[in-house]
Amino acid sequence: MIINTDSHDHWGTPKELYDKLDKEFNFDFDPCPMMCDLDKLNGLFVDWGKSNFVNPPYSKGKKTAFIKKGFEEWKKGKTVVFLIPACTDTLDFHKYLYPNAELRFLKGRPKFLEYGKISKNNGTRPIMICILKAGIIQ
Predict the structure, then answer these.
(1) Ranges assigned E (strand) in 1-138
(2) Class for domain 15-33+49-132, per CATH?
(3) Model confidence over 23-49: pLDDT tens digits?
């Protein structure tokens, strides 16, 4: 396995935050894990599991692609939990998330993982959790 080396685009989820969400949703798939061989797994081109945790790369094009894919997987009856910047003014937010997802806004800014270690600095943006629950289609 290789590390996704674009450290300015993809940040590992703090373990305590992931564990809390996993306890609630019992994840069985992560379409964009931090440690992966990008030639063997591209979460945009595979079917997702029944309960999915998605902390996508944050650049606009990549984040948009994962939000759209997550929305498509949700319409197939799957649960999709996004950990993304709290950008509530975007087309993606209003088209895919706002009318359909449960929204949770984090207090403060978490310290993400860089190369498997906790960053010395907090994130630079506010973060939200957007939950598209299986079986709840608006």
Answers:
(1) 51-54, 79-85, 102-105, 113-114, 117-118, 127-132
(2) alpha beta
(3) 999 999 999 887 655 556 689 999 999
